[in-house]
């Protein structure tokens, strides 16, 4: 990952890191692969409200609706 920008927020322990769209998509794809899911499968789980794991739910919270994979 290449960090394009980084800055501190008003809170001492918060750091915002900005990455490229390409890197974001690659990270999302990698996370889906680690869960053995496609984006469509994860999206279906979100529609039904039934996630196969806590990790799948957390991934949807992180990337849901933000990428088109």
Explain what this protein looks like in three dimensions.
The protein is mainly α and 69 residues long. Helices cover 51% and strands 12% of the residues. It has three helices and two strands. The chain has helices spanning 21-35, 39-48, 54-63; strands spanning 5-8, 15-18. Strands 1-2 form a two-stranded antiparallel sheet. The longest helix has 15 residues, at 21-35. The two termini are 19 Å apart. The mean pLDDT is 86.
Annotation keywords:
globular, two-stranded antiparallel ribbon, mainly alpha, 69 residues, 3 helices
Quick structural overview:
This protein is mostly helical.
Assembly state = single chain
- Most strands sheet: 2 strands, antiparallel
Helix-strand sequence: EEHHH
**Derived structural class:** mainly alpha
Strand order across the largest sheet: 1-2
Average pLDDT rating: 86
Unreliable residue runs = none
Number of strands: 2
Q: Roughly how many Å is the radius of gyration?
A: 14 Å
Q: Layout of SSEs?
A:
Layout: E1 5-8, E2 15-18, H1 21-35, H2 39-48, H3 54-63
Antiparallel strand pairs: 1-2
Helix pairs in contact: 1-3
